[in-house]
Amino acid sequence: MSLSVYIAGVGVISAIGNNVAENLASLKSEHAGMGDITMVDTIYSKQLPVAEVKLNNDELAAMADMHANISRTTLLSAIAAKEALDDADIPDLNNLRTGFVSANSVGGMDKSEDFFVKFLADNSKGKLRDIFDHECGSMTELVADKLGISDFMTTISTACSSSANAIFYGARLVKNDVLDVVIAGGTDSLTKFTLNGFNTLMILDKEFCKPFDENREGLNLGEGSGYLVLISEKVAKTLAKQPYCTLSGYNNSNDAYHQTASSPDGTGSYLAMQGALKKSRLQTTDIDYINLHGTGTPNNDSAEGTAIKRLFGPNFPPMSSTKSYTGHTLGASGAIEAVYSVLAIKNKLIYPNLRFETRMDELPFEPVKELLTEQDIKHVMSNSFGFGGNCTSLIFSAV
Amino acid sequence: MKVYIRSSACVSPQNTFNSDSFLTDIVESTGTRLKAIEPDYKEFIDPKQIRRMSHVIKMGIAAAKSCLTQANVEMPGAIITGTAFGCMADTITFLTRIVEQEEEMLPPTAFIQSTHNTVAAQIALMLECHNYNSTFVHKGISFESALFDAMMLLNEHEADNILVGGVEEMVDTSFTVLTRLGLYKRWPVSNLSLYDTSTNGTVGGEGAAFVLLTGEESVENLAQLTGLKTLYKPKSIEEGIIDFLKSHELGIDDIDLIITGKNGDTRNDEVYTELGTSIFKNKALANYKHLCGEYPTSSSFALWMTSNIIKDGVIPEILKEGDFDSISPKNVLIYNHYQGKYHSLMLVSAV
User: Is A134 assigned a catalytic role?
Assistant: First the structure.
């Protein structure tokens, strides 16, 4: 087994930038990506803020070098995955065993919902092209084909923890010597389906979200895609540059409390964080920054906060939710935040939790309010929790 | 690291669930769609919840719980499912309401239960199982991906007694759409004569099949899951199969029975026919899709079936392609492909 799994490349597209450099610039300049809904035809435009990628499908298709009539979720995936692979710049890639592990929550739903309007009126109507790639696996397959990857591919869908699980699965494929290189992450575009779904749960904030604030009122949905290139120790030695860091710890635990709500004491999140620490053989005091799941819903932040209080107290590392920039990108969030965690180590940064005002009554700590630079960051924990009690924590460590 | 199948349970269009007989009491159905036979869910699920749960969730829970009961295991070390389409009924219900009610006054239940991880999550919830929990959603290799994850977890000594399942439900809307996409036959056909005429299309199916995998040797184990490999658009499947067997220090002569994913569709079955003239020539062959129909995780039905064939030492007549003496097979190869793109090989051996 390869003992360490290195991160050799990163790629991201989100509401705060179309590539890694733009995302990093926005994180530093405290520029949030939320705004009115412009890409989805819904009665909630002008009512609910969302964090959209600022390019339409034609523009994304041109960037991805793919057809504009395919799912936006696929286009976002292709752009970020390509950026990550280019960034890794792995010598002799064709002679290595390479895999693509991607995640998403609703597959090609943006196209399926177009199909469905016509189909519902008349079952013989609706363009079949729009429903053909409904399956979650289709997004992965199209992007793998585009990247020329055929050795291994699969798709994970565990709601909002999907892409954190994809990254950790990718790392295990390397550790088990199944593959040498894995591009792992996730993607999701905004859809009417998810927008309406979250709206029925009454957890969408009508203002820009305020994660971990006493007066938080819910989340803002976002969209985007993020990927890491994970490589074995052997491949790391062939790189022209130093890898970013390692993925030193990971854990997937289940809250087993409710299909959508988190348990009051955050059992699942506690177990995930504790398990990831154990895997990386680190203590809570070794963690220099926590990139919170921090959706901004009363329930999540309370459960996650309580779990952190129980596990880390009384020494709390700096922490923040970058969903205050990107919104909650669902199946992509774990991967986008993994990219930000890697960038935090590389650039010695701790990002602020935007719009934070009032500490939560139940917590003895609060998130970071301003950008911290020149931080000696050795270990970052990134949390991702989802429907179905699926809780995953990842730990990235400086090399 | 050896991987054993400790127990297996299956809800399918046949009498496979908690049945005393093994594929002797066959259900014939004429049409282009085989529907799963619903177990009495009251045994497994609180009656109040039964009403709210979709078909796929109920089938999944029943199969998972029966699998655990058979193995006498209360708490699995991990729960992993594979499903290409996920919770189709709830997805369609919610989509329909969005359109019909123009996005207003929507109840949340269908959305809540629409995520692909719902089956694995509901099993965890019922068992209060906090362990590793994941769901793979990669088309025709969703179940194989879940199995592969479980085999890695065992190899890593991260968990034992891993519950792995393939689940898929066929609802009217998906059947209509998939029929329009040309997956099924144009005319009704009896599932028992699925392979008799060479025409385009197959019959749709559905089901839920779980296995409990363990690293521990026991006389109670049904079989050993010796190997698993998936191939994407392989240049030569023949070479793929030979390489796979070789990686387990076996040749085709060591295989006593081959179970193929033949589904009655001319194009789909071409590759099996070709192999029948080369490496599959003079081998004992069996089919299964006339019993469960075609669906992306049908290989989970095949694995349930194979585990029982090995344990019982009997190949039910209904499965056999042509006549051959019913030997007690020691090494069984399951070869399935989904729409020509995804090919999967599972090697199951006697313990």
Answer: no
- A314 preceded by a cis bond (ω within 30 of 0): yes
What is the residue range of A359's domain? Answer: 247-397
What average pLDDT does this structure show over B175-192?
Answer: 96
Asked if B40 reaches chain A (Cβ–Cβ under 8 Å), the answer is: no
- Hey, how many other C-beta atoms are within 10 angstroms of the C-beta on B123? 26
Q: Rounded to whole angstroms, what are the CA distances from A277 to A2, A14, A297, A342?
A: 19, 29, 26, 17
Residue A255 in domain: yes
Is the same domain home to A172 and A261? no
Mean pLDDT of B340-346: 97
Taking a C-beta distance cutoff of 8 angstroms, is the pair A295, A269 a contact? no
B295 touching A (Cβ < 8 Å): no
Are A268 and B135 in contact (CB < 8 Å)? Answer: no
Q: pTM of the prediction?
A: 0.98
Q: Profile chain A (399 residues) by mean pLDDT over runs of 10 residues.
A: 87 98 98 98 96 98 98 98 98 97 97 96 96 96 98 97 98 97 98 98 98 98 98 96 97 95 95 98 98 98 98 98 98 98 98 98 98 98 96 98
* Contact with chain B for residue A185, Cβ under 8 A: no
A3 CB burial (10 A radius; 0-12, 13-18, 19+): exposed
Chain A residues touching residue B122 (CB < 8 angstroms): 259, 388
Local structure of residue B80 (DSSP, 8 states): E
Under 8 Å between Cβ of B134 and A156: yes
CB nearest B130 (choices: A140, A172, A271): A271
Is A192 within 8 Å of chain B by CB?
yes
Whether residue A328 lies in the annotated active site: yes
CB A356 within 8 A of CB A249: no
Q: What percent of chain B has pLDDT over 90?
A: 97
Angstrom distance (rounded) from CA A65 to CA A50 = 26
Annotated domain spans of chain B: 4-214, 226-349
Let me know if the fold of B4-214 is the same as that of B226-349: yes
- How much is the ipTM here? 0.98
B265: part of which helix (H) or strand (E)? none
Under the banding of pLDDT at 50, 70 and 90, the label for residue B174 is very high
Q: Quick check: B120 pLDDT over 70?
A: yes
Strand residues in B92-204 grouped as ranges (E): 132-136, 162-168, 189-190
Strands (E), chain B: 4-11, 30-31, 78-82, 132-136, 162-168, 189-190, 207-214, 223-232, 257-260, 285-287, 331-338, 342-349
Q: Is A77 on the interface with B (CB under 8 A)?
A: no
Domains held by chain A: number? 2
Which residue out of A160, A209, A245, A391 is catalytically annotated? A160
**Residue A293 annotated to the active site:** yes
**The CATH number of the domain where A159 resides is what?**
3.40.47.10
* Residue B41 sits at the chain A interface (C-beta within 8 Å): no
CATH of B4-214, one of 3.80.10.10, 2.10.220.10, 3.40.50.880, 3.40.47.10: 3.40.47.10
- In chain B, what residues touch A268 (CB-CB under 8 Å)? 130
List the catalytic residue out of A136, A245, A293, A391. A293
- When scoring A47, A119, A157 by the number of chain B Cβ atoms within 10 A, the one with the most, hence best to mutate, is A157
Q: What fold characterizes domain B226-349?
A: Peroxisomal Thiolase; Chain A, domain 1 (3.40.47)
Phi and psi based region of residue A271 (left: phi greater than 0; alpha: psi -120 to 50; beta: remaining): alpha
The string of pLDDT tens digits covering residues B24-80 is: 999 999 999 999 999 999 999 999 999 999 999 999 999 999 999 999 999 999 999
Residues A308, A176 share a domain = no
